[in-house]
Write a structure and sequence with these properties.
4-stranded mixed sheet, globular, binds flavin-adenine dinucleotide, 389 residues, single chain, alpha+beta, 51% helix
């Protein structure tokens, strides 16, 4: 094989293009400078300040894949994954705020909205509107298509009645993709997606959850009591919403993998710095081989998780099959995040257990990776189905 053929064989997965590297670095520098000083306060108050949200819009992070013609960044899904990773290295709650906007809401609109809907909603989302994605209900989580939110036709409108639970960005969102059924007896074939706008009659935001981790990210109940949705706000075809739900979540979970990789990197950064400074027995604890090996193992696992996330994201952008890889990257990176953050707490000793130091929060934040956008058992089910045929 000559040199040209070797080059054509492909670029290493973690080698970024100049544009990707500049983008990732600028997002990380922004997060380090503007978000890091606020992390503890946001966690305690369970709130993202408006000026941080404004900054995320100014940075173009709320419309990464939206075409430039609609006011967005015109970038790729991989860029969105890089942004979620870079933000989560500092604060995974900001990571998921940006993640839902880009990899679920905007992603679904880019794929299924009509030209008219794109013209209406994409410029809003790129500049000021916050999106949410409402599928789960109290009785339907893993069994998502058992949803009970009903919708019936009345003239030019659809009338939506039901309750959604656990909706990320629910407190802030003003454009929400809501899944409901036009016919419960039709099973998944009744499911239809709607774009609900804040201010629609019959729509209110209910209880905000008090959570273990990613506390600054709002998680709310959404209530629809005969909510009037114009027919122009149906997303995709009536009865085909299940495809939107499945396909968007298949892609979205790659970015949850990125959130977990960023979070684990943040914990490892802290652990490396701290073990280099903390002295016991007359030397830095990083000089003990046992500690070095623990850090080396964490770095190895993190590298593997990052490769899996980048591979799945690159496959998605290359329009290659990625279902198995997406499920694998989510389950693996969420487990790595749990292990690396746990190690970071251990290496901080007593200081790891208190809120004055940053790793306690990352340890709490890591847990969600095994729950949302499909629990670990559901990821294993997807992988098993693919490999067993
Ligand atoms: C912080 C947070 C944010 C969220 N954000 C959103 C959002 O923005 N939009 C949205 O629509 N939803 C959101 N969710 C909901 C989330 O996707 C669900 O919680 C998740 O899918 C699990 O559903 P469940 O909670 O009903 O658990 P269940 O489905 O009841 O699962 C409970 C346990 O049973 C296991 N289990 C269930 N079925 C099987 C099976 N067939 N085989 C083996 N094990 C099984 C699960 O793995 C899990 O361990 C969010 C949840 C949280 C906590």
């Amino acid at each position: 094989m000559n040199a040209t053929n070797t080059a054509a064989a492909g670029t290493p997965l973690t080698v970024l293009s100049d544009d990707e590297r500049l983008f990732r670095d600028s997002v990380y520098q922004f997060a380090d400078r503007e978000i890091r000083p606020l992390v503890r306060e946001m966690d305690e108050h369970a709130k993202i300040p408006q000026h941080v949200i404004d900054k995320l819009f100014e940075m173009g992070l709320m419309g990464i894949e939206i075409p430039e013609a609609h006011g967005g960044g015109g970038a790729t899904f991989f860029h969105a994954v890089l942004a979620v990773e870079a933000l989560s290295r500092v604060d995974p709650a900001i990571g998921v705020f940006v993640d839902v906007q880009n990899t679920l809401v905007i992603n679904a609109l880019l794929r299924w909205a009509t030209a008219e809907q794109k013209q209406r909603f994409l410029p809003q989302l790129a500049s000021r509107s916050i999106g949410a994605y409402a599928l789960s209900e109290s009785g339907s989580g893993s069994d998502a298509f058992a949803l009970a939110t009903r919708v019936t036709r009345r003239g030019d409108d659809w009338i939506l009645t039901g309750r959604k639970l656990w909706i990320t960005n629910g407190h802030e969102a003003d454009r929400i993709i809501v899944f409901a059924t036009v016919d419960p007896s039709a099973g998944y074939r009744g499911i239809t997606a709607f774009i609900v706008e804040r201010g629609f009659e019959g729509f209110t935001v209910g209880k905000k959850e008090d959570k273990l981790g990613i506390r600054a990210s709002s998680t709310c109940e959404l209530l629809f009591e005969e909510c009037v949705v114009p027919a122009a706000n149906v997303l995709g075809e009536v009865g085909r919403g299940y495809r939107i739900a499945i396909e968007t979540l298949n892609e979205g979970r790659i970015a949850i993998g990125a959130q977990m990789v960023g979070l684990a990197q943040g914990a490892l950064d802290h652990a490396i710095k701290y073990t280099g400074e903390r002295k016991q027995f007359g030397k830095a604890i990083a000089e003990f081989q046992a500690v070095q090996h623990q850090l080396a193992r964490a770095a190895t696992e993190l590298h593997a998780a990052r490769l899996m996330v980048y591979e799945a994201a690159r496959l998605r952008d290359a329009r290659q099959p990625f279902l198995t890889e997406a499920a694998m990257c989510k389950i693996f990176s969420s487990e790595v995040a749990e292990r690396v953050t746990s190690l970071a707490v251990n290496l901080f000793g007593g200081y790891g257990f208190v809120k004055d130091y940053p790793v306690e929060k990352l340890y709490r934040d890591a847990k969600i990776g095994q729950i949302y956008e499909g629990t670990s058992n559901l990821q294993l089910q997807t992988i098993a189905k693919q490999i067993l045929g």
